[in-house]
Amino acid sequence: MKETYTYIRSQLAAVMGIDSPSGCTGALEEYLSAQLAGMGFAPVRLVKGGVHVTLGGQGQPLTLMAHADTLGAVVRRVKPNGRLAISNINWNVFNVEGENVRVITRSNGTFEGTVQLCNASIHVNPDPYQVRDLNKNMEIVLDQDVRSAEDVQELGIETGDPIALDPRFRITDTGYVKSRFLDDKASVTALLTLANWVSSHRPVLSRRVDLLFTAFEELGHGGACGIARDTVELIAVDMGCVGEDIHCTERQVSICTKDNSGPYNRQLTDKLIRCAQRAGVDYALDVYPSYSSDASTAIRVGYDVRHGLIGPGVYASHGYERTHLDGIYNTFALLRAYMEGGEA
Length: 344
Fold this sequence. Notes:
The chain has helices at 2-16, 26-38, 149-154, 182-201, 266-279, 294-300, 325-341; strands at 44-45, 50-56, 62-67, 73-78, 84-88, 100-104, 110-117, 138-142, 162-165, 170-171, 176-179, 209-214, 233-237, 240-242, 253-259, 262-263, 283-287, 306-315, 321-324. It is of the alpha+beta class and 344 residues long. The protein has 2 domains: 2-70 and 180-341, Zn peptidases (Aminopeptidase, 3-Layer(aba) Sandwich); 73-165, Beta Barrel (Elongation Factor Tu (Ef-tu), domain 3), CATH 2.40.30. The mean pLDDT is 97.
């Protein structure tokens, strides 16, 4: 177990260190592909974006999917004063003011900056408490000596360049993980841990097991392609929610029974529960009122599968999030038990 926790720590730090806002996931896909290939597997990059790999086994194919993309924004235009106007994709304005960012250019690397209210100095702005709108009165202040649009353009920054928030990743002495984008890099780490377990221990798999790392879940169409057509069971490995009227804690794996897309497959959910109980995995059952997953998307576009959703408990989703190493481990442990002995 100690070895697994060590692996979780190292992989979590690695994937958190790679920016991957929706539409700009190539660097993380390259990393995932290299890690999986180094384990002896044969990952395939999807044309759309994403990584698919088969871990082995035969019969009743099971696909486990986590999303590699995170919340993000892009440069709307370079302003005459050298600041960057923002075109928001899915940032929460209440969580990003004053945060550090990286602007990812097409040909000249990345540049650091900060999300600020326009004319942010409280001793200068006559209305410092105005309602914030990322698309109207917020901007990126670059950490470069730029005073004009021409100065910025010389750096190679252009309209449409992705803007990635600094995750502010850290693990406390008590095992809590605090970071942006634990949705869904905590579960990306759980799937990498599962793949590493298979590579190292060569367990007998109860069926064929595929992993799929999608690239557009935060935009709602990550699970629309890339799933093997003979898949029988599909489990989205995303975050479990922590909050009022929710059972899950950050130290558990959540098995979601229903979200705003509707109930998850009863037969598959029942099997996950029995498997967690047999394996002694610390789990909770939950209903999420404001949630939808890649598995829900797959059902909508016509995949004929039993679909489910699990994940480590995450607090403050889409903000500065928090989980626990135990939650990631319990997610891995449930997947391992289901992969090895789950009923087909």
